[in-house]
TrEMBL record:
Gene source species: Polymorphospora lycopeni
Name the UniProt record assigns to this protein: Uncharacterized protein
Length: 297
């Protein structure tokens, strides 16, 4: 399934950023993968990605927990873990994540949770709170149409303690059965890494992205150089509301409130400044983070 290929790619890419950072911060870290239906090879791919970073595990401990209906069978199919890595299976669905984290003694250390629920309900407050309890905690969550309908993921994650949240809708080639991918963290560089991974999906199989926060948004192609016209409209609309904002604030807006990367902000602002659509203070110099952008030239 094209959507599963994209979500699997995002997990592997985020692991590539998270694991070195987590093991630099702490001597132990926990990866939790929770599935609401058939994981379809994703746990194996994630474990291989962790094994490729075995050199990082010297003197460290990585605990990998797989939560699934047939978790014991899933874990039995996995390759033998590298030294310094322990793999456990917990029967059940995403609602068992708090139990899994407690059993893994994950408190007080970095935690990355991959919550895959293309079918079934959205996670409850207890699940999100448990994920946010990592130091730090990060969440990559996949929700199907039934789970995302009427679900305010931003409010739920804010209540759980995640200050940085972004989301993108995956649109399959036939347009039906869209999935919502949500990423939540406390670390700006982790958010930037996720956004870079989002636009670096190799061979999306006809899957396109759509901004779930914009009811008028059209799906866009997945490419390292995406069409920035939607971001231009979003930034102009945001500036119309706030009147003035620093470049740093606008980059943060892009990273959290749109599907684009923070670095795309500078390219759009350069075009807007050239066109005279916005002004800046100071008027000259490079576009540093403390430059203030306003709607009046």
């Amino acid at each position: 399934m094209p959507l599963r290929a994209v979500t699997g790619h995002l997990l592997i890419r985020q692991l590539g950023h998270w694991l070195p950072d987590a093991l630099h911060r702490s001597r132990r870290a926990t990866l939790v993968q929770a599935y609401g239906d058939d994981p379809d090879g994703t746990p194996e791919a994630a474990l291989r990605a962790c094994g490729e970073a075995a050199h990082l595990l010297r003197g460290r401990q990585l605990t990998v927990v797989v939560v699934a209906d047939h978790a014991v069978d899933v874990v039995a199919r996995l390759d033998a873990p590298s030294p310094g890595m322990a793999v456990h299976g917990v029967p059940g669905g995403p609602d068992r994540v708090p139990v899994a984290l407690k059993a893994a003694a994950a408190a007080g250390a970095p935690v990355l949770t991959y919550l895959d629920a293309p079918t079934g309900p959205a996670p409850g407050p207890a699940t999100l709170a448990a994920v946010a309890g990592g130091r730090p905690g990060e969440l990559l969550m996949v929700l199907g149409p039934a789970a995302s309908a009427g679900y305010d993921h931003r409010a739920a994650l804010d209540a759980a303690g995640f200050p940085l949240v972004t989301a993108v809708e995956l649109v399959p080639p036939d347009g039906d059965g869209r999935w919502l991918v949500v990423y939540a963290t406390r670390l700006g560089r982790a958010l930037d890494a996720f956004k870079e991974a989002l636009w670096a999906v190799d061979g999306a199989g006809g899957v396109r992205y759509r901004d779930p926060d914009d009811p008028d948004a059209a799906p866009v192609d997945v490419t390292p150089g995406p069409d920035l016209a939607p971001l231009r409209r979003a930034l102009v609309a945001h500036l119309d509301r706030v009147r003035r904002a620093s470049v740093t604030d606008l980059r943060r807006f892009t990273a959290t409130a749109t599907i684009y990367r923070s670095g795309d902000t500078d390219r759009v602002l350069a075009d807007l400044l050239t066109a005279g659509a916005v002004g800046r203070e100071p008027r000259d110099g490079r576009l540093a983070g403390d430059v203030v952008i306003s709607t009046s030239a």
